[in-house]
Amino acid sequence: MKRTRGSLEAWGSLVLLALCSWTGSWATVPKPVRNLSVKDQTNSSITLGWTEPDGTASQHYLYRIQWEGTGTPGNKSTDNTSVLVDGLQPGSWYQFAVWVELNGTRSSQETCNVSTAPNRVMDLHKEAQTNSSITLGWTEPDGTASQHYLYRIQWEGTGTPGNKSTDNTSVLVDGLQPGSWYQFAVWVELNGTRSSQETCNVSTVPNVVTSLRIQNRTNSSLTLSWTAPVGPDHPSYTYWVSWVIEGTMVINTQDTRVSNTSDTRITLEQLEAGSLYTFTVQAERNGVSSDIRTLTEATAPNRVMDLHKEAQTNSSITLRWKSPTDPHSQAYTYWVQWAAGEHPQGDHDPRGHQANQTRETNHTYYEVQALEPGTLYNFSVWAERSNVASSAQGLLESTAPSPVTITSCISISGGHGVVLNWSCPRGGYEAFELQVGGQQDSQNRLSCEKRVSVWGLWPAQSYPAIITTIWDGMRAPSASVTCRTENSGAIVGAIVGVTLFLIPVGLLIFFLKKRHEKSQREPAPRGLVFSFSEDILAEDFADHVRKNEKDSNFGFEEEYQQLALETYSQSQTVALAPENSAKNRYRNVLPYDWSRVPLKAIQEEPGSDYINASFMPGLENPQEFIATQGPLPQTVGDFWRLVWEQQSRTLVMLTNCVESGQVKCEHYWPLDAKPCTHGHLQVTLEGEEVLEDWTVRDLTLQHMQEQKTLPVRQFHYMTWPDHGVPHSTDPMLAFRKVLRQWLDQTTEGGPPIVHCSAGVGRTGTLIALDILLRQLDRDQRVGPFSYVQKMRESRPLMVQTEAQYVFLHHCILRFLQQSSRVPTDNGVAYENPLYENV
Ligand SMILES: *[C@@H]1O[C@H](CO)[C@@H](O)[C@H](O)[C@H]1NC(C)=O
Ligand SMILES: *[C@@H]1O[C@H](CO)[C@@H](O)[C@H](O)[C@H]1NC(C)=O
Ligand SMILES: *[C@@H]1O[C@H](CO)[C@@H](O)[C@H](O)[C@H]1NC(C)=O
Ligand SMILES: *[C@@H]1O[C@H](CO)[C@@H](O)[C@H](O)[C@H]1NC(C)=O
Ligand SMILES: *[C@@H]1O[C@H](CO)[C@@H](O)[C@H](O)[C@H]1NC(C)=O
Ligand SMILES: *[C@@H]1O[C@H](CO)[C@@H](O)[C@H](O)[C@H]1NC(C)=O
Ligand SMILES: *[C@@H]1O[C@H](CO)[C@@H](O)[C@H](O)[C@H]1NC(C)=O
Ligand SMILES: *[C@@H]1O[C@H](CO)[C@@H](O)[C@H](O)[C@H]1NC(C)=O
Ligand SMILES: *[C@@H]1O[C@H](CO)[C@@H](O)[C@H](O)[C@H]1NC(C)=O
Ligand SMILES: *[C@@H]1O[C@H](CO)[C@@H](O)[C@H](O)[C@H]1NC(C)=O
Ligand SMILES: *[C@@H]1O[C@H](CO)[C@@H](O)[C@H](O)[C@H]1NC(C)=O
Ligand SMILES: *[C@@H]1O[C@H](CO)[C@@H](O)[C@H](O)[C@H]1NC(C)=O
């Protein structure tokens, strides 16, 4: 028991000791830290903080921190309530344990799991861009927790800013505006801990240009135009245009021509004619270029060359031309277009005159078929490539006339004559040439389907008869028929013959009577309106001409050049007015304001008082003649107004309507007995007499409102080439004599109206000739130089060429020679023609 008691005592003291000891320990065990939290995270450090536990001996607390995670575990001690743990790996989880120690006694531990911040993303770059989206890519930063990384992308630019998240290492941002800058920021988040951000600026692609087209095209240039790309605002773009000619293999950019512009059009010059060019256009903005637009277009070919008529019949014309010398002319096709002009016989063409026809050919010739005979055609030929046409080359050519058929040949006048009758040919015809036996003469174009008698034949003979149609210098002989003259006389023929003989005799008597009356009535001239300073005596004139003819007309050349030197800078305001420009046949032949012939103005029609006509001074009268241009289609009405208002009874025409394929003057009088009306004026052709060199027509002008008429005689000289001179002076002198006799006898009415094409060359020469011969008659002296000078003060370019000036002298000289041989030759008005219309 004692032993038990003793052992009990020992156990009791042990338990007490232990109890005491425990009690002491228990009293000093500290409490754990409170509110352990993360204060900061970087890519290499974590700062933890906490609140010190409740207790009295807090100034003696030692805090122990232990961590493990990536790398070697570590521990730290501090008496502070926060700790910075560094040397850690970025983007990694760490498990921390924190406890308190007091005098070697430790509290329970608090733990927490914390990650370091990830590193920033690496190698941020643009992977792709379109007109509405941008794709960015980057490399994942290091870190053991990288599978938990979340990437944040934020952007701003045109439009509202935006953001996105992804766990991928690339992102497509769409819904953007084309051609615009965007600024992107990208960072990584690991459980809310973000890295620092990477930024980059990327632009979207501009849209493509639209409506790329050719705006203008020539044979050496192309103007491209396009519409600016569709974009958010109206920014400025740089356009890159490149082009390459066909047949070039583009191996590198040196084969391509490039140009840039900020304009939405570009003109490329010095290109090859008729060649295909391929263009590309790209819009660039912010250094980013749009997709390309391409266009392949051809330049216009050059004109065809040397277009001419190779052959013609009365229903076809073969044209031939040369290809232009363009690099690809073998690829050209050619177009031939033609339209019929008018011919004096009016509209025989059922298709109408203005209808044109067009044909394509691969050759450099074309036979145009199914044409009307005796008709002037206006041809145009042009080359074409890829539906691009060159400018057209024009040519006026006439088909040959068609031959007539002689329908009858009847003997008259007891076999001394025949009456011929022939059909009017299809198409145009100007005149007919008759050949009966050895005799030959012309008939005017009104003679077909009439009866034309031929005299001077012998009875009881056979005569071959051919009638040749004449048109535009071309001749179409009919089939020959044989005319047989009868044996005995025929009364009808005789009567016709006598009547025909009597008419000219009657006229002659009438003329001479009138002339006599006039010379009695008129007083002697009162002196010149102007005086000739260098007048030449009649007897010295031949010497003067010979002197000037020496050394190939050196003297005349000097005189004429002196005339040309004197320019009269007088105003031509009315002729130059825009509303009158279409009324002038030639831009350089315009009347002076002071000497022009004004028309009566039509109310509210500007320029209605203008016609290209000038008064010409004569011996006594400062307005003795009117010189005017050949009427244009649009001035025929004005021309007849001029005739009516001036009450001119005489027209002198010195040109043909068409000469060498060129229209020189509109056919302003009626073609046949059917009257023509121009405004209030009606013109009727009463009769016509065709002679070898000229035609005399009688016309009546009727004012429909005023119910008055004016007889007008037209003297039409037909064999005077433009710019040139007639081959002989005699027909001209004869023509002037006939004209002068008529003028002397026609005392009523206004000044005679003289015209050719421009109304200066031939017109000037004829007026000068008439005035100078009258001066010679009256004064026995003559002054060609000073009179031409005088004319040129009233209208430019009168007597237009040196050859005409020389011809004027030759006419005067010939006149002097004739009058010295036959001093008072007041011959018959017209030579008795062999042929007469019946
Ligand atoms: C510590 O945390 C408790 C609750 O967990 C809270 O009531 C207290 O205010 C916190 N103290 C501090 C100093 O943050
Ligand atoms: C932490 O980031 C800085 C800059 O971002 C960098 O220079 C440094 O190397 C990074 N530290 C580690 C351990 O990656
Ligand atoms: C604490 O760290 C030291 C070195 O810094 C080391 O020697 C010791 O073993 C560590 N203690 C524990 C309990 O890990
Ligand atoms: C404890 O921390 C505070 C701020 O956190 C600091 O100012 C102080 O110097 C620290 N004390 C020691 C002993 O590290
Ligand atoms: C530690 O304990 C001893 C006795 O057990 C005591 O004397 C000493 O003061 C204590 N130290 C602190 C810092 O409390
Ligand atoms: C911290 O991580 C460890 C291991 O990953 C885990 O066992 C523990 O429960 C975590 N603690 C907290 C507070 O999440
Ligand atoms: C982008 O281009 C396509 C095709 O070119 C076009 O249809 C689309 O409208 C464009 N988007 C924008 C935003 O302009
Ligand atoms: C991110 O985008 C959403 C809508 O997509 C928006 O509500 C939010 O404010 C954006 N955040 C930032 C920081 O822009
Ligand atoms: C992330 O942080 C939240 C608090 O911020 C915590 O509740 C959660 O457990 C953390 N996740 C991980 C995987 O540690
Ligand atoms: C086309 O080019 C011609 C010749 O260069 C020029 O006269 C004409 O005005 C241009 N037309 C346009 C629409 O640019
Ligand atoms: C030819 O005729 C066509 C229609 O038939 C017309 O459009 C064109 O202008 C004409 N050309 C000429 C030069 O008259
Ligand atoms: C011209 O030649 C081309 C190709 O050789 C052919 O297709 C076309 O029909 C020809 N045109 C004519 C009018 O012959």
Q: Would you kindly provide a written description of the structure presented here, covering whatever features stand out?
A:
It contains nine helices and 53 strands. By secondary structure, the protein is of the alpha+beta class. The protein folds into six domains: 2-115, Immunoglobulin-like, CATH 2.60.40; 122-203, Immunoglobulin-like (Sandwich); 210-298, Immunoglobulin-like (Sandwich), CATH 2.60.40; 305-398, Immunoglobulins (Immunoglobulin-like, Sandwich), CATH 2.60.40; 406-529, Immunoglobulin-like, CATH 2.60.40; 565-818, Protein-Tyrosine Phosphatase, Chain A (Alpha-Beta Complex). The strands form 13 sheets. The protein has an eight-stranded mixed beta sheet with strand order 42-43-51-44-50-49-48-47, sandwiched between helices. Strands 3, 4, 6, 7 and 8 form a five-stranded antiparallel beta sheet that branches. Strands 11, 12, 14, 15 and 16 form a five-stranded antiparallel beta sheet that branches. Helix 6 (729-745) packs across helix 9 (802-821). The chain is elongated and about 180 Å long. The protein binds 2-acetamido-2-deoxy-beta-D-glucopyranose (12 copies). One 2-acetamido-2-deoxy-beta-D-glucopyranose is lined by residues 79-80, 82. The site of one 2-acetamido-2-deoxy-beta-D-glucopyranose has 3 residues, from loops. It catalyses: O-phospho-L-tyrosyl-[protein] + H2O = L-tyrosyl-[protein] + phosphate. The chain crosses the membrane at residues 490-512.
